[in-house]
């Protein structure tokens, strides 16, 4: 069993990473001290694979549960869907003594976590992530929220889970594209905090979905330490996790949600961030090339389609929550394994970095 603790005082919790954990969900949740009825929130892609197993495990441990299934995809990460789910929970008899289980990928974790944050002004929840993105990144740290037409994740709350249960075997059911896109977040972690991990990633077979639990735990530990330093992104340390996300989110929000998967948009954002890193942080070009080759190794996009206007991406960037008081803060690398924040990039360099993605 790989165990990573997130130490946040009264909001501390553990992330457990091991094959077979899905079948142990009920006993692990009981050991974490959660009582009351459980509301399982999942999407219609994940439910056929894992819902029955979670329901059975909960029942074996004495929990009564209800299940709530929403349409898979980024478009469901909305206020409308959050309201629907909240009302379903009320109609199923849940109240402030209940807890929520988020079973699925990043969309499910963000959406179900947001419902947990607002339902009866906040009830506990458990993350059971089933994708690379969610297992190494989004299930940890307490960021919950939904999208709006103005941008991604602009409506949300910090609400830490009580427990994270990560079963690497769940990755075996993912379509290849959904599996590979998650490695943009893994590469991000290596780029900002763990240069040695790059060598490990270069040796991985991108078609082999049997991911070592130790690799997932290594990524989770990076995220956990950053969250401990800056839980609500006030000191700037947590902003390092946004490497590639500033322009990446702008690209993702400029298209109908789901056109590009999250990791695919972040791959493009990383390429733009590497160019800015060379110009403004002194990152050697050969270091950029190593990251770009690794993104290509996992078949992640490095060239943006021509039909996404730069002006539209810039408009989405202007509403990004990482821009405070009109101040644009980007995460750059000055060397592999060391992310830094920079608020002095000239305005004209940003559209240039976006334009360069088309070639």
Mind explaining what this structure looks like?
The chain is an alpha/beta fold and 359 residues long. It has helices at residues 25-31, 47-60, 79-91, 106-118, 132-138, 176-181, 183-193, 195-202, 213-229, 245-253, 262-280, 285-297, 310-318, 349-355, and strands at residues 2-6, 13-17, 38-43, 65-70, 99-104, 125-129, 143-148, 151-158, 163-166, 330-335, 338-342. It is globular, with a radius of gyration of 20 Å. The model has no long low-confidence stretch (mean pLDDT 95).
Spatial gap, N to C terminus? 45 Å
Number of strands: 11
Structural class of the helix and strand makeup? alpha/beta
| Helical coverage, percent range | 40-55%
Looking at CATH, which topology of the largest domain would you report? Rossmann fold
* Share of residues in strands: 15-25%
Mean pLDDT: 95
CATH class of the largest domain: Alpha Beta
Number of domains: 2
Quaternary organisation of the protein chains: single chain
What spatial order of strands do you see in the largest sheet? Answer: 1-2-9-6-5-3-4
Contiguous helical run count: 14
Instruction: Give Rg in angstroms.
Output: 20 Å
